[in-house]
Design a protein that fits this description.
- By secondary structure, the chain is α+β, with helices and mostly antiparallel strands.
- It is built from three helices and nine strands.
- The strands form two sheets. A six-stranded antiparallel sheet has the order 3-2-1-6-5-4, with helices on both faces. A three-stranded antiparallel sheet has the order 7-8-9, with no helix packed on it.
- It starts with a strand and ends in a 7-residue tail after the last helix.
Length: 145
């Protein structure tokens, strides 16, 4: 399971629970590739989320039940990290931000306050529930007598 993806001077690093994989491509490129591997485009996903919700920035990307990525800043910002919230074990507030501890024990510091992170997580839950409702209602066959 991917924990997070961040840019580095050679491209990006993908942090898995048990290893690190280096890519010559940006973290944003890697997120787009994950979208394609799961049969949707990043651009189409963002367009749909904007149309169906009031979300306009820092939109989380729900790939599947194990990979839900939250950008820490603008997606094209070099400093942006894509955090997989499904791999988070604990969040600890710090003086100016939060410390995220993953199930692997790896730690990551993020500039968001605990409240900002909670608000982002609420937005993810909203989008997740909308996706589940769409999936359920599109697969129910209704017959009339």
């Amino acid at each position: 399971m991917i924990e997070y993806i961040q840019n580095d001077m050679h491209g990006s690093t993908i942090f898995y629970q048990d290893k690190e994989v280096y890519s010559k491509r940006s973290a944003f490129y890697e997120i787009k590739q994950l979208c394609y591997q799961h049969f949707f485009s990043y651009e189409g996903y963002i367009k749909s989320i904007k149309k169906m919700t009031n979300e306009r920035k820092l939109i989380p990307i729900i790939i599947n039940h194990e990979h839900v990525f939250l950008p820490t800043s603008r997606v094209r910002n070099y400093e942006n990290k894509w955090i997989n919230i499904e791999s988070i074990y604990q969040i600890n507030p710090k003086d100016k931000g939060v410390e995220i501890i993953f199930f692997s024990g790896r730690k990551l510091y993020v500039d968001d306050s605990l409240q900002q992170l909670k608000n982002k997580l609420k937005r993810i839950m909203k989008i997740k529930s909308m996706k589940v409702n769409i999936f359920i209602f599109n697969h129910i066959e209704i017959t009339s007598k």
